[in-house]
TrEMBL record:
It comes from Lactiplantibacillus brownii. The gene is tagD. Pfam families: CTP_transf_like. Keywords: Nucleotidyltransferase, Transferase. Residues 5-124 form the Cytidyltransferase-like domain. One of its GO terms (molecular function) is glycerol-3-phosphate cytidylyltransferase activity. Its EC number is 2.7.7.39. This is Glycerol-3-phosphate cytidylyltransferase. It comes from the Bacteria. SUPFAM superfamilies: Nucleotidylyl transferase.
Amino acid sequence: MKKVITYGTFDLLHKGHVRLLKRAKALGDHLTVCVSTDEFNAIKGKHAYTSYEDRKYILEAIRYVNEVIPEKDWNQKISDVVNNDIDTFVMGDDWKGKFDFLKDYCQVIYLPRTEGISTTKIKKDLELFD
Ligand code: C2G
């Protein structure tokens, strides 16, 4: 069984997130999504609208996702890959090059982001409405 892993906040889940998950799953048989906890988001300088528990609940309903685990810090990726027998690590290409150190442990693939959509854009666009 070929296992894939990806990481993210996945706040206000949108088509860009789902397309990433769909393409990641297509690279193997099993997709693990490592979702940033609320505490780690604070470290990342992000404030998610949706709590970790709710973002986990939503992702577990996505047909491409097999397992959801917490991302608590920047330094867990190697142990996640080793401990979960991961074959392929996938991220959107806004992270291109940032995780190449994982090439010693698994395949590393950066996929093109979906243009025109982001959680930040959603938040800004919603400010325009009452
Ligand atoms: N993404 C995408 N297209 C978009 C928006 C996001 O392909 N229009 C991808 C991102 O490239 C990322 C994933 O969806 O691979 C999740 O995006 P975020 O929730 O913004 O993830 P981020 O906050 O960048 O967290 O340790 C890694 C970090 O946890 C990544």
